[in-house]
Write a structure and sequence with these properties.
The complex is a heterodimer of chains A (327) and B (309). Chain A has 327 residues and is of the alpha/beta class. Chain A is built from twelve helices and twelve strands. Chain A has two domains: 213 residues, P-loop containing nucleotide triphosphate hydrolases (Rossmann fold); 100 residues, no CATH class. In chain A, helix 4 runs parallel beside helix 7 and helix 5 packs across helix 7. Chain B has a domain of 170 residues: MetI-like fold, CATH 1.10.3720.10. The chains are: A alpha/beta (327), B mainly alpha (309). At the A-B interface, helix 2, helix 4 and helix 7 of A face helix 9, helix 10 and helix 14 of B.
Chain lengths: 327, 309
């Protein structure tokens, strides 16, 4: 099966400083992928680059194919059709993500007019349907309201409605709940998964919250310092992480049940993108690192069906995890 | 909403009273009109008679109350030099001033705003740097220096245009150019930074992410937001249409309000100076009020606040 979107060797540099260093990622139709990692690991940049939304001075290379069509070299007019039409994106801070001087109706109808063959009353009716779909109460009256008249959770719902306007095949949700309080977070995530199921839409959920990803995604990719270090079905990754960084992330999560245990923290800090260590970027913080780790950056390699890891000690760390002594 | 405007109008009235009071006091403390107009050689009894005739020997608070009483009746006093009503003297100069400042305003806007937008959209490009260098030059060079430079080039060296006076439309070109260039520079810088600020906002990225073509992102998403700060500076420019050409009128011997002001101040022709300052304060305050109303129109967030204010 050809993937819906496939990213290969995607690299981004700002002023010569690499922030994305060769990302490989593929996503099937209707699939939900979680993208986790610390701030600055390149989760958002990956998708901003794929959609050509980075500032002009960003240096982007590699390949992003949507249904086999290359996006990175596509002309602006073709990209405009993809954005919102095939791939929609919602962002972290809903309050500033909508234009403050335009009404909701204007912003919603703009998206509808761009991607759907609708006109006149049909546009308004569809805008209304979308607002009802995402659960904005009294939608007919509130169409003529401005963004500042809504709460943060409601604005994020409107953002989702706007993202759905073009019937996209893929929704990139970039930390969609980070700026919202906990009860609203749960509602928004619930809304996203319902819509995804009903519309059979693929979704990338970018988050640094592992719990959010575990609940809402089929598959998870862990990013570190501009690379994907491990990729696995969600349940397998959480049960049995292989890359030492993924192990660290999951070890830092408090377990919901079972006896209390001391949470483990990953020592050290994310390397500065301008001064990346040679070899594996995680080696300086890795308890399992040995001499070869500092020599060459490991590539993402399969260790099982639909599981890939970028660690030369993948086998050893697996054993360490399982408590099997190395020979 | 009504209260929002009432507060602003009240504030505007207070500003005018303060400006007029300040001018009144400073003018009376800074020199004796009798000496200025009659000259230091005038006999003391003539000076005394002059002071008595114009009420200058009354205590200053009395003169002040008297002055406001007269304003309330619509009288702005007479020129001490030729006895004509001050308002009449000022009004007959206004067309000449507007003949410079109105076209200059049009050029400033037509030149400055597009230049600023273009520079912001092509940030870091050679054209952006050129526009900004010109803008900084136009910003920092005082208008009299620019005026003299233009005279030197176009009147003295090339001999294309007259260096002063008001005999034909050709006489207006250099003064208008001087006013336009400085103002366009200010506007270009202002528009550019307003645009850059707006272009960095998340809602611009949202618009791009939903597939809005870049040209339309600029016109229907960025410009309406960038207009809000730019309106402030436009209001200021409209407010200075009457008195914004003091220096330029003096350099080019253009008989407008600005030149009248310079002469009247030098002569301590109190009624004329006060009349001009009142007029300037009125236009400035009015244009600020208009800007406040425009904010409400351009920015729905302020409209909402105004409703609760």
């Amino acid at each position: 099966m050809t993937p819906l979107i496939s990213i290969q060797g995607l690299s981004v540099a700002f002023g010569g400083v690499p922030v994305l260093r060769g990302v490989d990622l593929a996503l099937g139709k209707g699939e939900a992928l979680g993208l986790v990692g610390e701030s600055g690991s390149g989760k958002s940049v990956t998708w901003l680059a794929a959609l050509g939304l980075l500032p002009r001075h960003a240096d982007v290379s590699g390949s992003v194919r949507l249904d086999g069509r290359e996006l990175l070299l596509a002309p602006a007019s073709e990209l405009d059709k993809v954005r919102g039409g095939r791939i929609a994106m919602i962002f972290q801070d809903p309050a500033s993500a909508l234009n403050p001087v335009l009404t909701i109706r204007k912003q919603l109808c703009e998206a509808l007019a761009l991607h759907r063959d609708l006109s006149g009353e049909a546009v308004k009716a569809e805008a209304l349907r979308l607002l009802n779909l995402v659960g904005i109460p009294d939608a007919a009256r509130r169409l003529s309201a401005y963004p500042h008249e809504f709460s943060g959770g409601q604005v994020q719902r409107i953002m989702i409605a706007m993202a759905l306007a073009g019937n996209p095949d893929l929704l990139i949700a970039d930390e969609p709940t980070t700026a919202l309080d906990a009860t609203i977070q749960a509602q928004i995530l619930e809304l996203l998964s319902t819509i995804r199921r009903e519309m059979n839409m693929a979704m990338v959920l970018i988050s640094h919250d592992l719990g959010v990803v575990a609940e809402n995604c089929d598959r998870v990719a862990v990013m570190y310092a501009g690379r994907i270090v491990e990729q696995a079905p969600a349940n397998q990754l959480f049960a049995d992480p292989v890359h030492p960084y993924a192990q660290g992330l999951i070890g830092a999560l408090p377990p919901l049940d079972g006896p209390h245990r001391r949470l483990t923290a990953i020592p050290g800090a994310v390397p500065d993108p301008a001064h990346m260590p040679g070899g594996c970027a995680f080696a300086p913080r890795c308890a399992l690192a040995t001499e070869p780790c500092g020599l060459a950056a490991p590539t993402l390699a399969p260790i099982a069906d639909d599981r890939t890891v970028a660690c030369i000690r993948a086998e050893a760390s697996r054993r360490a995890l399982l408590g099997i002594a190395a020979e | 909403m009504g209260r929002y405007f009432a507060i602003r109008i009240g504030r505007a009235a207070l500003t005018i009273v303060l400006v007029v009071t300040f001018a009144f006091v400073v003018l009376r403390l800074s020199g004796d009109p009798a000496l200025m107009i009659l000259g230091p050689e005038a006999p003391p009894e003539v000076l005394a008679a002059f002071r008595k005739a114009w009420g200058l020997d009354d205590p200053i608070w009395f003169q002040y109350l008297d002055y406001f009483g007269a304003i309330a009746k619509g009288e702005l006093g007479r020129s001490m030099r030729d006895g004509r009503p001050a308002m009449e003297l000022v009004l007959e100069r206004i067309p000449a001033t507007l003949a410079l400042t109105l076209p200059a305003f049009v050029f400033k806007v037509a030149l400055g705003i597009p230049a600023g937008i273009y520079a912001a959209l092509h940030r870091g490009s050679a054209i952006d740097r050129a526009v900004m260098m010109t803008a900084v030059a136009g910003f920092t060079v005082p208008s009299f220096v620019l005026a003299l430079l233009l005279v030197l080039i176009f009147a003295v060296q090339l001999g294309w245009l007259p260096s002063g006076g008001q005999d034909s439309w050709r006489h207006a070109i250099l003064p208008i150019a001087t006013l336009s260039l400085g103002g366009a520079a200010v506007l270009a810088r202002f528009t550019r930074s307003a645009m850059l600020e707006v272009l960095g906002q998340p809602y611009i990225r949202t618009a791009s992410a939903k597939g809005v073509p870049w040209r339309k992102v600029v016109t229907s998403h960025a410009l309406p937001n960038a207009a809000i700060p730019t309106v402030t500076i436009l209001g200021f420019m409209i407010g200075s249409l009457i008195a914004g050409a003091v220096v330029v009128e003096s350099v080019f011997a253009w008989p407008g309000v600005g030149r009248l002001l310079v002469v009247a101040v030098a002569n301590r022709d109190l009624a004329v100076v006060q009349c001009i300052l009142l007029l300037v304060a009125l236009t400035m305050v009015t244009s600020n009020l208009v800007v406040d109303f425009l904010y409400g129109f351009l920015d729905p967030r302020l409209r909402a606040k105004g409703a609760h204010a």
